[in-house]
Design brief:
alpha/beta, 9 strands, globular
Length: 366
């Protein structure tokens, strides 16, 4: 069992990439574009990623952000499953405190039935939004309580996925369907696959929990770069072999954008940084165009934020991005790099992944 589970987690590096490369998609919506445009881009990128040997494609859960159309990961993943055939698909992640564990077990059991052996279930404990929106999602103002209960919610979700509540438990006769209970019904046959659970984090809490439980871990380097190495060290130090993994496996999310020339890359990441300035100051909106960003009058404080933010975005020509990713992987020891390209235009994002694939000599479609 451990070998089978680990096989669904560990990827294979292709070309000259030091580790497997994957994609994190926020389904970003640019000014003048629609959510439909963004979702079509997601399909295009997923198909490209599959054809070029990227290992997995994850969608993140966010809410109440006009420029991010990924509020319903399970729905988007079903759409992507219908347009791909091999690449692993998953959540990066589902914010578990926003949902009943049974609902997530049902959703991802359904996805597993749609795309057997291709589904990952990445889980986070943050709300993926502001406090007021989180309260609306959870129907409660006790937001810290949800985060503090994360280990218990995770245990409940895992039991629903495995259909193994003990005798006497109030949920013993409740089953997540599709799921293992179907194999125990008369004439039942059930898929041998179960979506691997990953823990996501931007601090030490989930790093330690993933290590103690022997689960794979994904760290959000793209917005918490200063915590990356300490969190990965904590994960490795805390790791205990499990039925899932016999050794630690950690990926990091990385903002990376390649363009045909360095100047164009700088223009694109400036627009994405302006979007983050507005988000961090309570003015979330659509991703602005590079022209709007170039004309924007940044205050000294905003300029400082932009410089700090973009220092952790690997961007430039394909060779520059490859060198930056190689250095980051070597410095962190990450087992996998999950790249997210934030830009106004879907064509720019698609081109970035294509250029990075070319820079590493990833497989080309027959």
């Amino acid at each position: 069992m451990a070998a089978d589970a680990a096989e669904e987690i560990r990827g294979t590096a292709h070309g000259t990439a030091p580790v497997p490369l994957s994609v994190l998609d926020l389904v970003t919506v640019g000014a003048g574009r629609t959510a439909s445009d963004a979702l079509r881009t997601s399909v295009d990128i997923a198909r490209l990623a599959e054809s070029r040997g990227f290992h997995r494609y994850w969608v993140a859960e966010h809410h109440s952000m006009p420029g991010v159309a990924s509020s319903s990961p399970a729905v988007i993943l079903a759409h992507l499953a219908a347009h791909t055939g091999r690449i692993r698909l998953g959540s990066g992640g589902v914010m578990l405190p926003n949902h009943a564990p049974l609902v997530i077990a049902e959703q991802f059991g359904t996805l597993e039935a749609m795309a057997p052996g291709r589904i990952d279930l990445g889980l986070g404990r943050a709300p993926g939004t502001d406090g007021a929106t989180a309260a609306a999602l959870r129907r409660s103002d006790r937001l810290n309580e949800g985060a503090d209960d994360f280990p218990q919610q995770l245990a409940e979700l895992t039991r629903f996925l495995d259909d193994d509540f003990p005798d006497g438990h109030p949920y013993r006769r409740i089953h997540a369907v599709p799921g293992p209970v179907q194999a125990t019904s008369p004439g039942g046959v059930q898929s041998p696959h179960r979506p691997p659970v990953w823990l996501l984090g931007s601090s030490g809490f989930s790093a330690r929990l993933a290590g103690v439980l022997g689960l794979p871990f994904a760290f959000a380097h793209h917005f918490s770069a200063q915590n990356t190495v300490p969190a990965l060290d904590l994960y490795r130090e805390s790791f205990r072999p499990s039925g899932v993994l016999d050794a630690p496996y950690a990926l990091i999310g990385v903002s990376a954008l390649a363009a045909d020339d360095e100047k164009e890359a700088r223009r694109q990441v400036l627009a994405a940084a302006l979007n983050m300035v507005r988000l961090r100051t309570g003015r979330p909106g659509l991703v602005p165009t590079p022209q709007e960003a170039e004309a924007y009058d940044f205050s000294p404080m905003e300029r400082e934020f932009v410089d700090s933010w973009n220092a952790n975005v690997v961007h430039g020509t394909p060779d520059e991005v490859r060198a930056g990713l190689d250095e980051l992987q070597k410095r962190t020891g990450a087992d996998e790099l999950m790249l997210t390209a934030n830009a106004h235009g879907g064509d720019v994002r698609l081109r970035s992944y294509e250029l990075i694939a070319d820079a590493y000599g990833l497989p080309t479609p027959a």
